[in-house]
Amino acid sequence: MFMSDKTTHTVTITGYNSDGEGVARLENGRVVFVRGAARGDVLEVSLIKERSGVARAKIIRILTSSPYRIETDCVYFPVCGGCDYRHITYEEELYAKLQSVNDALKRIGGLKAQVDQIIHTGQINSYRNKAVLHSDGSTLGFYKARSHDVIPIGRCLLLKDDLNETIKDLSKSHMGYDSDITLRSGRNGTKPPLEFELDGLIFGVDGFFQVNTGAALLLFQKAREYASLSKSDSLVDLYCGVGALTLFIGRDAGYALGIEQNDEAIEAARKNALRNNLSHIDFINADAAKWVADINEPDCVVVDPPRKGLSQTAVRKILDISPKRLVYVSCNPATLARDIQMLNGYIVKDICAVDMFPRTANVECCCLMVRDCRKTINDLYSKVQFETGCR
Q1: By C-alpha distance, which of 175, 102, 96 is closest to 135?
Q2: What domains sit in the chain, N to C, each tagged with a CATH number?
Q3: Higher pLDDT, residue 387 or 199
């Protein structure tokens, strides 16, 4: 519902929400979100909309500028919806992302576990190996913030140079595209088939792959550390895609199995195993939540689900096969926190954040969960009591 109130308000920004908007309170104590705000700003704002009890406002005037506020380096910000944090320092952006992760863990998951640092490459521009261009029939570019209106983009600071060159060529020759155009760039440039290299492993990509190769290496290394596998161990990856994480971690195991319901991705995963001479790693085409387990109590299960997180059936599957360790890679702290709460019988041993998407509000997490020994002991005690008739 759009607001008709033209009254302005003076607010002080105290933090950020998970979408990268500044958070403040109106005179009556009500929470309001302000895009383009920085922690410490004192702003004159005007309410613009209210939906589901959430008020949003636009900046009319900056009364006192935050010490974290900087001049933007992009001519398209904040009109373009691709970036959220080009108006603040990178250090403040990392603070905002840690706040987002820890707020989700505490508020949604009810967890005491908190993340105290976020690992990153330090490269905040020219890191994206993928671009999705939109067209309205006459303009080729990106969406405006919070809309499907297309604006032309001459150069995106997030994209690798070869992608920007391709966009420039497409814009010159653009004649009535009426559908999205996806561009990718690998170690062999933009020519298919695309290849990516991570720590000596080569991956041919036919489907999803991390858009920031440098940060993906940091994430994969952390997941490998958490998995802590040896040649006597087994690994199951329930959302394996083209097998990148399965192969990266599974090379340490005696046996590894990747499961993915997309048949094209599974075919690519099998080719990647052959390409890297990892014959002890298998892949099957199946739904992760409905897969009939051939491995009970694997040493480690890895999950890297979509933003919506794990389904209840997937959670039950994990609990059924009862791994010793569970490594959960997440692109959504909110659903990660929810799923941690649902994984009854497991506790968080360690968790870290990874800045996969600099200058945006998105943040990746990697979490290590282990069996809760206290619950296991209690379950065994209850079982003995039941079988012996003792109470």
Answers
A1: 175
A2: 1-69 (2.40.50.140), 93-123+190-377 (3.40.50.150), 130-184 (no CATH)
A3: 199
